[in-house]
Amino acid sequence: MTNSINFKQVARALTIVENDLPGSQQLLKGLTFNKPAPVIGVTGPPGAGKSTLVNALIDLLLKDGSKIAVLAIDPTSPFNFGSLLGDRIRMSSHFNHPDVFIRSLATRGSLGGLSAKTIEMTDVLRAAGFDYVLIETVGVGQSEIEISGLADVTLVVLVPEGGDEVQHIKSGLMEIADAFIVNKADRADADVFANNLKKIIGQKKDGQPPVFKTTALQGTGIAQVAGFIKTSMQVKNPRRQLLLTEKAYKLLAHKLTHHIDKKKLQQDVTVALNYKDFNLYSFVDSYL
């Protein structure tokens, strides 16, 4: 059984970091990691059942007394800068569980789905003493690839009727997946899809990652996925240097551009478009 975690303190620390409030940098620089807290990334296309899968994984991981943190990322609208933050609805059964902490996070304009804030908030959760930190991405754009820079184990969730299997296995996605999960496996052609997936992986990558079939809504196959996660934690991650490099790059990019207000940028673009000689590259130079 793990020590008690003060969820209110964790929530306050996350708010300070997320909003760049005074003391955020000191807070981050003072983080200490007293226990290994593996970061599990769950990615895949919208509608694959990622939130339901995470919910089912939480149920199993709680059985051994683990404390679990979930960071559910929702896309920010590029038009009104709002975010639905709807993943909490699917995890409502764990809202009041004393060993589960759930936080939603908007992408804050990062089209890839992972902002520098995701990295910082994940480290706050790792330092808080949780046994597992689950990160659910939006599953669009580059987020499927970018999660590899953050997660110790990356699970790629697909569905049988998702279309041509080859289209799913983009080269980047192939490289970052530690395991593929064919969710909603009770649907037609799930076995055919999973078998074809195994063949494609075997042809394109050495050290073939496993393919699991799950029906997250019923909890079918989730035990195998949880077992894989626990086993993976005992193996040294060969991508550690790559992971840290990706995190450092993302944080550096944020520090170099944090002074730019995206709403003001949009307003300035609107004004600049009124000039006949508008040139995007000249406009960008004026911001540097």
Can you describe this structure?
The chain is of the alpha/beta class. Helices cover 42% and strands 13% of the residues. The protein has 13 helices and seven strands. The protein has helices at residues 7-18, 24-29, 50-61, 87-90, 116-127, 143-146, 165-168, 171-176, 190-204, 222-232, 240-257, 262-272, 280-285, and strands spanning 39-43, 68-74, 100-106, 132-136, 153-158, 179-182, 211-213. The chain has a seven-stranded parallel beta sheet, with helices on both faces. Mean pLDDT is 81; it is low at 77-89.
DSSP helix count?
13
Largest sheet data? 7 strands, parallel
Structural class: alpha/beta
CA distance, first residue to last residue: 52 Å
Task: Give the topology, please.
Blueprint: H1 7-18, H2 24-29, E1 39-43, H3 50-61, E2 68-74, H4 87-90, E3 100-106, H5 116-127, E4 132-136, H6 143-146, E5 153-158, H7 165-168, H8 171-176, E6 179-182, H9 190-204, E7 211-213, H10 222-232, H11 240-257, H12 262-272, H13 280-285
Parallel strand pairs: 1-4, 1-5, 2-3, 2-4, 5-6, 6-7
Characteristic key phrases:
7-stranded parallel beta sheet; 7 strands; alpha/beta; 288 residues; single chain
